[in-house]
Amino acid sequence: MQEAELRKLLDMYYLPVMRYLSHLTGEATAAQDLSQEVFLKLYHYGPSTLENPRAWLFRVATNLGYNYLRQRGNRMRRETAAYQAEQEASDLEELAIRSEERVNVHQVLESLSERDRTCLIMRFSGFSYQEIAEVIGVNKSSVGTILLRAIKRFRREYEDRGEIKDGLL
Fold first, then answer.
1. Longest CA–CA separation in the chain, Å
2. Which residue of 1, 35, 57, 90 could cross-link 18, Cys pair, CB 3.0 to 4.6 Å?
3. Residue 89 neighbours by CB distance under 10 Å
4. What is the pTM of this model?
5. Rounded Cα gap, residues 19 and 7, in angstroms
6. Per-residue pLDDT, 144
7. Is residue 163 very low, low, confident or very high in pLDDT (cuts 50, 70, 90)?
8. Which domains are present in the chain?
9. Residue 45, CA distances (Å) to 13, 31, 40, 120, 159 in order
10. What's the half-sphere exposure (Cβ side, CA atoms, 13 Å) at 49?
């Protein structure tokens, strides 16, 4: 293989091949890598055996570019699938934790007196002090104190079970 012939083809076609690959792939760094690969293939093939080196270079560039795009697409699909699987696992884990918390909260509520349980459930369901007072049969002015004591009992029981989480009461 003649080095001068290879140098001539490199000087003439390297930038056009790289621009072509840059447009094809949409990535300048990939285009540079692929262009180098095109000219490595030319070096191994031997430029003197080619009838139309320009057509050969662009055919090789096209094949390498589409191979790159397929591989990138496959990689992106794999990464997306892996990310989605990770998210689903994380979501399932979060769901399991929330489900476990719900069971623990329910068990603690069941351990409280009926009045405390009713007050807490009603208050955290959006009922007013007046509505709570009417249901449990006390003065509206007593509801705040009853709720405060019920919250303390709930918290104490929840902590005793080792289940206290940030943001819960």
1. 104
2. 35
3. 10
4. 0.45
5. 19
6. 92
7. low
8. 3-81 (1.10.1740), 112-160 (1.10.10)
9. 16, 21, 9, 81, 75
10. 7
